[in-house]
Automatic annotation (TrEMBL):
This is L-2,4-diaminobutyrate decarboxylase. Belongs to the group II decarboxylase family. Its cofactor is pyridoxal 5'-phosphate. The modification N6-(pyridoxal phosphate)lysine is found at K310. Pfam families: Pyridoxal_deC. GO terms for cellular component: cytoplasm. One of its GO terms (molecular function) is carboxy-lyase activity. InterPro entries: Aromatic_deC, PyrdxlP-dep_de-COase, PyrdxlP-dep_Trfase, PyrdxlP-dep_Trfase_major, Pyridoxal-P_BS. Keywords: Decarboxylase, Lyase, Pyridoxal phosphate. It comes from the Bacteria.
C-alpha cells in the first residue's frame, strides 16, 4: 500500500502535490536559514522512531515546521558560501523521474533506455571537451577504443577514478598488474598537483595504497595557478619515470584558479605522464560563450573530472569521469555473471558496471540530459556566465570599499576578501577572528551564508556566486551588513584589540 504502483497512483499525485505546496511555502518565505545555533538546530530536529508510523500529513507538517527552516536555502540569493548552487527545476523534475523509475545503471536489464542515454551524454561530453580533436574519431561502439566515461557521485569519486587508472597504467608500464598483485613491495610513484588542489587528491592517494606522502605539492603563483617552473623542477628532481600522474586543476575550490593546461599537457605528453584534469568547477566553462577560452587545453588530459552538481545547477549527486582512451577501463573490469556476462557482451548488450566504481548506481545522467534539452547550450552557458559577471561586479564593489580588502580578482565566480576596518591596527589573528565572527553572525541571523577560507597566509571571506538570481544589489547589502557586524564586534569587548580585553 505504501509502494509506488498502480493502486497507489492516485495517492501518488495527491501526496506529491502536498509536498510541492510545502516546498512552495518554503520558497516563498525565502529565508537564508532559520535554524539558529548548532545546539538549537539539533534540538529542533530530534526524531524518535516509533513502533507505529504516522500519516504523511503529520510528517510533512514536521518537515515544514522543523526541517525546512533548519536548511540553508540555496535558492536564496544571499546563499553564497560554497560550490553549492540552487537547482534548476528541470533537475528536480528529473529527480522525481529518477526516483519513480529507480533504474540502476549497473546492467542493461535494470536500465535499458537509461544506459543508452548515459552513453550518449558521455559521448557528447567527450566531444565537448575536445577529445575528438586528439583521438580523431570518437568511440562509436561501446567496445570501441576511443574516448569514454561514466557518471559518478561527484568530483571526489571522479578524481579517485583518474588516480586509480593512472596508477594501474603506471605499474603496467613496469610490468606489474597492481589490480591483481597489489602494491606491496613496489616503489611508489609520485603524484604532482598544485598546493591549491582539492583535498580529495591526498585522500584518494591514501585510499589507493599510495600514501598521502606520494602527493607532492607544486607551488602556485599569486593567482593560485600551478607554477610551471616549480612543476619542471619537481619532475627533474624526482625523475619523470617516477611520476605517476600530474593532476591539474581547472577551477580551484577557493579562488577558481586554472592551471596552465596547455603547458602542463605538453610536459605530460613529452614525458609520457598521465594527466588528470580536475575540472569539477571549471568544467562548467565548456558551456560558456564568453569564458570558454579559460579552459583551453582541457583536451590534453588523459582523464577529466566534471561535476554537474556545482556550476551546472543540478541536484546532488551528479558528476562524470571522462577518459581519453577507454581501453584504460580494462584494468578495472570485473566479470560477474549476473551483470555483465560474456554472452551479453558478445551480443553487444551494453553495461556500464565495467566503467564504474559503484555497482547499483543512480541514473543521474537524466538531470543533465533534461537540463540541456530545456535550455540548449546557449541559455545554459548564459546562466553560467551571468555568475562570472556578478562576481566581477562584486569584486569592484569590495575593492572600492575602504573597510575591505580584495584578495584577488575573481577568475571564475568566487571572490576572496576580508574586512579590515580603516585606521584600525589589528593583528592577523584578530583579523581572522573578526572575519570568522562576521560569517557566523550573518548566517545565524538569517542574513547571508558566506564562507571563510584560508588562501595562502590569509583568512578570507568568500563569496562563491553560483546563483544566477544573485544581483549586485544583494551583494551590496551583504557587504553593508558585514561592515555593521564587524564594527559592532570591534566596539564590543569580545575582540582583543590593542591590548583591550
Ligand atoms: C568540489 C570539488 C571536488 C569534490 O567534488 P565533490 O563533488 O564534492 O565530491 C573536487 N575538486 C574540486 C576542484 C572541487 O571544487
Amino acid at each position: 500500500m505504501h509502494l509506488l504502483n498502480q493502486q497507489t497512483s492516485e495517492q501518488y499525485v495527491t501526496h506529491m502535490q502536498k509536498t510541492s505546496a510545502v516546498i512552495k511555502q518554503w520558497l516563498d518565505d525565502n529565508n537564508v536559514y532559520l535554524g539558529g545555533t548548532p545546539q538549537q538546530v539539533q534540538a529542533t530536529n530530534t526524531f524518535s522512531i516509533r513502533e507505529q508510523g504516522r500519516d504523511i500529513d503529520t510528517i510533512l507538517a514536521d518537515i515544514q515546521s522543523k526541517f525546512l527552516p533548519s536548511c540553508v536555502s540555496t535558492a536564496n540569493a544571499n546563499c553564497l558560501a560554497h560550490l553549492h548552487p540552487p537547482t534548476l527545476v528541470i533537475g528536480q523534475i528529473a529527480e522525481m523521474i529518477i526516483a519513480a523509475t529507480n533504474q540502476s545503471m549497473d546492467s542493461w536489464n535494470q536500465s535499458p533506455a537509461a544506459t543508452y542515454i548515459e552513453k550518449d551524454l558521455i559521448h557528447w561530453l567527450c566531444q565537448r571537451c575536445g577529445f575528438d580533436d586528439i583521438s580523431g574519431v570518437l568511440f562509436d561502439e561501446w567496445t570501441g577504443h576511443n574516448a569514454g566515461g561514466v557518471f559518478t557521485s561527484g568530483g571526489t569519486q571522479s578524481n579517485l577514478m583518474g588516480l586509480l587508472l593512472a596508477r594501474n597504467q603506471f605499474y603496467k608500464a613496469k610490468g606489474v598488474d597492481v589490480q591483481k598483485d597489489g602494491l606491496v613491495g613496489q616503489p611508489v610513484g609520485a603524484i604532482l598537483c598544485s598546493d591549491q588542489a582539492h583535498f580529495s587528491i591526498e585522500k584518494n592517494a591514501a585510499l589507493l595504497g599510495l600514501g598521502q606522502k606520494s602527493v607532492i605539492k607544486v607551488a602556485t603563483d599569486a593567482s593560485g595557478a600551478m607554477l610551471m617552473s616549480d612543476l619542471q623542477h619537481q619532475i627533474n628532481r624526482l625523475g619523470a619515470d617516477n611520476v605517476m600522474a600530474i593532476i591539474a586543476t581547472a577551477g580551484t575550490t577557493d579562488l577558481g584558479a586554472i592551471d596552465p593546461l596547455m603547458a602542463i599537457g605538453k610536459i605530460c605528453h613529452d614525458a609520457q605522464i598521465w594527466l588528470h584534469v580536475d575540472a569539477a568547477w571549471g568544467g562548467a566553462l565548456l558551456l560558456s560563450q564568453r569564458y570558454r577560452h579559460l579552459i583551453e587545453g582541457l583536451n590534453q588530459a588523459d582523464s577529466i573530472t566534471l561535476d554537474f552538481h556545482k556550476h551546472f545547477f543540478l541536484p546532488i549527486s551528479c558528476g562524470a569521469f571522462l577518459l581519453r582512451d577507454n581501453r584504460n577501463f580494462e584494468s578495472i573490469r570485473h566479470h560477474s555473471e549476473y551483470l555483465n556476462s560474456a554472452d551479453d557482451e558478445q551480443d553487444n548488450i551494453p553495461n556500464l558496471v565495467t566503467y564504474s566504481l559503484q555497482t547499483t548506481r543512480r541514473f543521474d545522467a537524466l538531470k543533465l540530459w533534461m537540463a540541456l534539452d530545456l535550455l540548449g547550450t546557449d541559455d545554459y552557458g548564459a546562466l553560467i556566465d551571468s555568475c562570472l559577471d556578478t562576481a566581477k561586479q562584486a569584486a569592484k564593489l569590495i575593492d572600492a570599499n575602504e573597510n575591505f580588502v580584495l584578495v584577488h580578482e575573481p577568475i571564475i565566480s568566487s571572490v576572496l576578501f576580508y574586512f579590515a576596518p580603516k585606521d584600525t591596527a589589528l593583528s592577523d589573528n584578530q583579523l581572522a577572528q573578526l572575519n570568522r565572527h562576521i560569517a557566523q553572525e550573518l548566517l545565524v541571523n538569517n542574513i547571508a551564508n558566506v564562507a571563510t577560507t584560508q588562501f595562502k597566509q590569509c583568512l578570507c571571506l568568500k563569496f562563491t556566486i553560483l546563483n544566477p538570481n544573485t544581483q549586485i544589489n544583494d551583494i551590496a547589502d551583504i557587504i553593508e551588513q558585514m561592515a555593521i557586524t564587524g564594527f559592532k564586534q570591534l566596539n564590543s569587548d569580545d575582540l582583543n584589540v590593542d591590548g583591550k580585553k
